[in-house]
Amino acid sequence: MPQYKQYKAENAKPNPKSTINSYRSFGYNLSTAIADIIDNSISANADNIEIDFLWKGNDSVISILDNGKGMNLPELIIAMTPGSKDPEDTRDEKDLGRFGMGLKTASFSQCKRLTVITKKEGFATIKRCWDIDFINSEEEWTLLDYVSNESYLDKVDKLKSGTFIVWELLDRIVGNSKVENEAVKNAFYQEMTTVNDHLSLVFHRFIESKKIKLFTNTHEIEPWNPFLLNLTPKPEMGQLEVLINNVEVTYFILPHMSKISNEDYNKSGGPLGWYQQQGFYIYRGDRLLVSGDWLGIEKKREYSKLARIAINFPNANDFDWNLDIKKSTATPPIEIRKELARIAKMAVMKSAKIYNWRGPKTGTSENNSQSFESLWKDETNREGIKKYKINKKHPIIKQLLDSEKENKLFSKALKLIEENVPLELILYNQNEDPSFHELESIPEIPSDDLIHLAVELYKIYIIQGVPENLAKQQIMNSTPFNLFPLINDYLI
Predict the structure, then answer these.
(1) pTM for the structure as a whole
(2) Cβ atoms < 10 Å from Cβ of 206
(3) Which one of 81, 162, 284, 339 has the largest count of C-beta atoms within 10 Å of its C-beta?
């Protein structure tokens, strides 16, 4: 703006120490952070991406290796520079980035040392490193030509082209834990399972179309399609509708649970179960952003649990959808909400028509991987009768059982509760009014008692040596805490 030139005064450069530490608080968790790195790999035309978790106590390492086009030195420096791309620039339709911040903010949210080793076809392998402790001491944005382990260079040298991202000093994940700390080690590898579940959903279209292969510790990640197209009988698929600005919308109505096998039911519930997975699924260029959310257009109800709606928009519409840096939230533009409401209402009515009073299966098993621990699970005894048991792996129950010594009163109380589940009363109420057990009756704000319980559990984890960030994730991935994101703010 030329009219301001006469008023120019000083250059107010942000302080490196405060700025880089603020990048650590963008709200990523480990799964969303790794997904952001994979976005860069896909944008670099990689078709093979390997994620590795290596436990070494406070020297543990998480790395992501891809066979994309790699970078030369000027490109690497730009990639390592915060805010290196103008968010308003037109992007290639296959580009999953937007803000030029993902590599830095995602990495710094999990670690204090980020090393990028890369090789472009026809160029030598090069490296650059950000170390937060060094930046804080120097108070300068100084990149390092450094790698902690020379063997990392060999991984990239062997490729025609590619990039290797290395996260070290994982203070947010393992803290200062010793190698022999089995509790943190187990939690560390449990996080890998959670990451697998997240990536299998977020990138399922890329995996299904053979555009990429994803691996964690050499294990290939299988896609999880939320629309369950592999079920028998198959879901009902609505006609594709194209709204303004090339927004594509398709609804899917799942078959009734009684129509599919128990094995298929257990596999198809997804990380959160059938009830929580209902609603809209928003994709940006086939990359999933939002899963299982009615976006305020409808409410989650038991009889609408069979309805799932896919929305896909091109990256040219990012600002219309209020896309955030983490690419974990998106809000439909006002001009299409009326059309989305129409499609949602139709899908809910179709779901309600199929659903009946017989109610949901709990659908749990030892082999069914979930990203949260439920309080109840079901088991079939030798006589083929279904019994409902309290999940001994739930963090609260586990802590109470572990704290018992000679007095086994709590174990006996659990047994008494399990033997007296009021099935007849539940079935009667469900038959009289199917909406009786709808979860939206749960208040939006957690009770003081529930908050205090979460805080006490958090303190126990900390005493055991579990890092703060991981302790929070363990609590917030279990019921009923996962229903109240506000509880996370009290875990300090």
Answers:
(1) 0.71
(2) 23
(3) 162
